[in-house]
Each structure stands twice: as structure tokens, then as C-alpha cells.
């Protein structure tokens, strides 16, 4: 008992010892060819790249990207099309929405190499300053934005919403699946629910989409 009482370990030394032990256990052990003694070297494998061809806003682009590159990062970092925004980067806010082969997608959730040969439309391809897309003009008219960060994704999504309704694709709030859905506030709000506006301009966004749907913009 007296011998045990002579051994004292401070909390600080205990934590340091535990941390060093855990770190050492995670390092790979390799043999040194000259000394035949173990050495610990952490190595990172080289990235794997692949070629991908995309037609973006009507123009062809050939890229060589890391296979882990998202479509969002390819657009922003490789092609400098920064209109498409990176918000949550988890597919939860809709700021990165683009139109791929006629359908809207969250570009942060898909890899660029998965869309070889695809037709991609970003906010830059919908209209120009000289000739705005009707949806862009309606958003301006109805003040469908405040900070504007989510607006590119909102507009790309809104354009696709009207195409979906026109094509007869039902939503969760469509009452009768046997008849074509109509442009109603409930349909618009449900279909746009994946696009978050932290400024809260939702009512103005609905007004803008309604006006385009009626052909008044």
C-alpha cells in the first residue's frame, strides 16, 4: 500500500501519454532499406483524373478533372461560371441548382464525370443583360430576391418547375394523378420547397413564377 501511494501520475501527463499512444498506433510502419529499422511515413495517393465533355450554355467544354470533383466545383473552379452558388454543399439549400439535360439538379450532389456528354444550363445561359429570360425579368419586377445569393438557383428551379407542370409531372400536392397538374400557388410552393431563401422573399418569388406562367412577363 505504501509503495502504491508513492506512485503519482498527474492528469496532464496521463492525457499526453494517451494522445501519443493513439497517434503512434495510427501511423503506417515501413522498413528503412538502409538501416533495416522501422520508420513511420504517412503517404497520400495521387488523385485520379478523368476527361469529361460537357456542353454548357450551348458551348462545348472538354475538362480533365479529379474524379471526385462535383459538377458544382467544375462549373465554378474549372470554368469560372460563378453564377451557380455553393451554399450548404449538402443538397439542402438549392443555391447550386442547374438544369442538366432538361432536368434541374443540385450540382453539389453529383460528380462531373457522371455527366459526360450532358447539356448543362446555368444561370449564365438563361439570358443576358441585353435580353433577360422572362423568369429573370419577373424576379426583378416582383423583387423576388434580397441578398441575391440564392437567386440563380431559384430562377433555374423556377424555369424547370413550369416545364414540369407543362409536361404533366405530378407533385406531392397534385390532387388527381389522372389529370394534368395546374399552375397553382400550392403547386409552386411545393415544387420550389427545395430552394431556400434565407431572406424570406417567398411570396414575391411565387408572384414572379405565376406571372411567367400566365405569359405576362
Name a few traits of the molecule.
five-stranded mixed beta sheet; alpha+beta; single chain; two-stranded antiparallel ribbon; 217 residues
Number of helices: 8
Mean pLDDT: 88
* Class of secondary structure makeup: alpha+beta
Radius of gyration of CA atoms, rounded to a whole number: 27 Å
β-strand percent reads 15-25%
How many β-strand runs? 7
Give the H and E element order.
HHEEEEHEEEHHHHH
Q: What about the largest sheet? A: 5 strands, mixed
The stretches of 5 or more residues where confidence is low (pLDDT under 50) are: none
Give the strand order of the largest sheet, numbering strands 1, 2, ... along the chain: 4-3-7-5-6
What helical percentage do the residues reach?
Answer: 25-40%
Q: State the separation between the terminal residues, measured CA to CA.
A: 90 Å
Describe the protein.
The structure is a single chain. This protein has 217 residues and is α+β, with helices and mostly antiparallel strands. The protein is built from eight helices and seven strands, in the order ααββββαβββααααα. The chain has helices spanning 2-5, 11-26, 71-78, 123-126, 134-141, 151-166, 185-191, 202-213; strands spanning 29-31, 38-40, 49-56, 59-66, 97-100, 103-106, 119-121. It has a five-stranded mixed beta sheet with strand order 4-3-7-5-6, with helices on both faces. Helix 5 crosses helix 8. The chain is extended, with a radius of gyration of 27 Å. The model has no long low-confidence stretch (mean pLDDT 88).
